[in-house]
Write a structure and sequence with these properties.
With 262 residues, the protein is an alpha/beta fold. 44% of the residues lie in helices and 17% in strands. Helix 4 (104-114) packs across helix 8.
Length: 262
């Protein structure tokens, strides 16, 4: 991965969202534009392993969602503001940009597409639709509301939906767990909203992920008008970038290859 990163120039910048919030991003690679949307506690840096692999074929733009990394955090929070953030990032990436979202980042990408954001193909990895998970996350939000960031983070990390280990700087991101909860709503698959997504969508899950996670992926696929489902054998919520990247590359390139062959 170090050789790949060395071979690619990485450009850092900021865009301004509709409410004036600065949103930081990094871009690398050359080709059709592709935006990566991180999940809970994710940043542009955490998306880099996948992004560098995809940058062999795409111009990849990974960004810090509001409240994370180099981005601002203008309040009060609303999911609509995150959709506006993503719209500003897509405009920076270029016309027809594709989207890939992991976890709650996938749920946010689908929410933005349903709200009318003009994008190319959309892929999501295990959007965590689950009423049970939303109830657990609400307990995390309660702790955050009392200013107990460390306790909220510890509770989240014990949940199977959370990262496997504590990484440096996670406490600084703990407050954004409430934002992810807002994106998920009551946790159930938002069938009516997903019915309004007109882009082609690939929903991916891991064959070794919990049964509830895989059920949610299939339910989301069924609710989307133009979607298909793919299971990656042996993968978990912490999907290996080198396994996921070729699947996404094939999906995002299929229409261009068909046009070239015509």
């Amino acid at each position: 991965m170090d050789e790949v990163e060395t071979a690619l120039s990485r450009v850092r910048g900021r865009v301004t969202s509709r409410d004036g919030t600065p949103i930081a991003y990094e871009r690398y690679g050359d080709g059709p534009p592709l935006v990566l949307v991180s999940g809970a506690l994710g940043t542009a840096v955490s998306e880099r392993p996948l992004g560098l692999l995809l940058a062999r074929r795409f111009s990849v733009l990974a960004y810090d969602r509001r409240g994370r990394g180099g981005s601002g955090d203008t309040g009060p929070y609303a999911v609509e503001r995150e959709v506006e953030d993503l719209a500003a990032v897509v405009a920076e990436a270029g016309a027809g940009a594709a989207l890939h979202g992991t976890g709650t980042g996938g749920a946010l990408a689908l929410t933005a597409a349903a709200a009318g954001l003009t994008v190319g193909h959309v892929s999501v990895y295990e959007p965590p639709y689950s009423a049970e998970a939303a109830q657990r996350w609400s307990r995390v939000a309660e702790l955050l509301g009392r200013g107990r960031r460390s306790a909220a983070l510890a509770l989240f990390l014990t949940d199977s939906a959370g990262p496997a280990e504590l990484r440096p700087g996670l406490t600084d991101l703990a407050h954004t767990l409430a934002y992810d909860l807002a994106v998920l709503g009551d946790g159930t698959v938002p069938e009516r909203r997903l019915a309004g997504v007109h882009a082609r969508v690939l929903v991916v899950d891991g064959g070794a992920s919990p049964a509830g996670t895989r059920h949610a992926a299939r339910a989301a696929t069924a609710a989307l008008p133009r979607a298909r489902h793919r299971t990656l054998t042996g993968q978990t919520p912490e999907v290996a970038p080198h396994v996921l990247a070729p699947v996404l590359t094939e999906f995002f390139c299929e229409d261009r290859e068909a046009v070239g062959a015509a």
